[in-house]
Amino acid sequence: MPLWLYIGAGGFIGALLRYWVSAWIQMGIITFPFGTLGVNTIGSFFLGFILYLSEFKGIFSEQARMFLAIGVLGSFTTMSTFSYESLKLLEQNQILLFTANVLATLFLTLFAVYLGKILGAMW
């Protein structure tokens, strides 16, 4: 099977997961984009975990790595939505929420990748 089909299938799954997980996290919260922050943090953790297991432990094949990292997690995490929601907060003069969203996303996703790497190393 061509590599692009693995990535496309993963992208389909990741997009659906993003929709469901983001909606579940965001439930009832209107002002702050916790759903986007949540999927970016979760996706960053799993990206660190999967890539570490793939690159340093040899656990995943190239097809599985592409399916998971580029396909599933590439469409699960949502940098463009994060950027749009952040700009929207800024335009609404919600400076504190804008700052909190940018800093929380930056630090939580970096920490999640690191945590995924650590767990992958311990696996």
Radius of gyration: 16 Å
- Can you tell me the overall shape? globular
Oligomer designation: single chain
Which band does the percent of strand residues land in? under 5%
Structural class: mainly alpha
* Major sheet: none
List unreliable stretches of 5+ residues: none
Q: Could you say how many structural domains there are in total?
A: 1
Order of helices and strands: HHHHH
Mean pLDDT across all amino acids: 94
State the end-to-end CA separation.
29 Å
Number of helices: 5
Would you kindly provide a written description of the structure presented here, covering whatever features stand out?
The protein has 123 residues and is an all-alpha fold. It contains 5 helices and no strands. Helix 1 runs parallel beside helix 3. The chain starts with a helix and ends with a helix. The model has no long low-confidence stretch (mean pLDDT 94).
Could you name the key traits of this structure?
123 residues; 0% strand; mainly alpha; 85% helix
Task: Walk me through the topology.
Layout: H1 3-26, H2 34-57, H3 62-76, H4 79-91, H5 95-122
Summarize it.
This protein has 5 helices and no strands.
